[in-house]
Amino acid sequence: MRLFFTPTRIIASVPIVFLVLVASQITLNYFDNERTIKTFIYKQASTLNTFMLTHRNYYINLYEEEKISLDEKSLAGLPAFSAYEISDTFSKANELDITLQTVSDKARNPQNNASAEQLRAIEFFKHNPLEKEYFVKEGDFYQYATPLLITQRCLKCHGSKSSAPDFIQKRYDTAYDYKLGELRGIVSVQVPIAT
Ligand code: HEC
Fold it and tell me: Do residues 164 and 176 lie in contact, with contact meaning Cβ atoms separated by under 8 Å?
């Protein structure tokens, strides 16, 4: 009778078993590492997003409660308006090259038009109205987003054009006739994986 497990065969298979073990360990480490990076990026993005929204709500309140009255001059302090400038400066200044933006598929200001990746996030929230967050890998960066939904306070300037403050009517022709609960746009955070 011929034995399959001859001593020579057993000895010859040792390096192969060893290689398989090392390769699986490397693969496991790789996925573990990917997961750690993903979790870390997610936490970074959501923290930044929370800060952005806290800041935004604080200032919208000041205008809503008329502690600051809205006119041509004070428009510069309105979060909807200042978001572009603040986000742009932040995006250029931070060391990790994180990009922060408030964008829309129907932007009042063309500077706030959503990119293809951001439009995918907007579509996601339109199809999944109960979802509060979006987090997807897009090539060499992660796209994080939260929805900006229309509440009563938004209708003052995004309801019918004729009921908007005078100088908003004069200055903007778009982004009116929104309905309560409708998706107005997103806060978008893009984190490059390399940095
Ligand atoms: C007092 C008026 C006012 C109120 C209230 C207001 N907005 Fe706006 N919103 C504006 C103006 C003006 C712009 C355009 C800013 C610019 O020129 O960059 C704008 C722009 C935006 C944008 C950026 C995209 C774009 O169209 O350029 C989003 C998103 C947005 N608003 C969401 C909201 C939401 C959500 C609320 C309620 C929580 C809200 N806004 C309340 C006046 C207002």
Answer: yes
Is 161 in contact with 176 (CB distance < 8 Å)?
yes
Q: Which two tokens stand for residue 123?
A: 């579509």
> Cα–Cα distance between 144 and 68 in angstroms, integer?
32
Q: Which residues line ligand 1 (CB under 6 A)?
A: 60, 63, 70, 78, 80-81, 84, 102, 104, 107-109, 112, 148, 150-151, 153-154, 156-158, 168, 172, 175, 184-185
Q: pLDDT-derived band of residue 134, with 50, 70 and 90 as boundaries?
A: very high
> Comparing 131 with 9, which gets the higher pLDDT?
131
What is the torsional sign of CA 36, 90, 81, 57?
positive
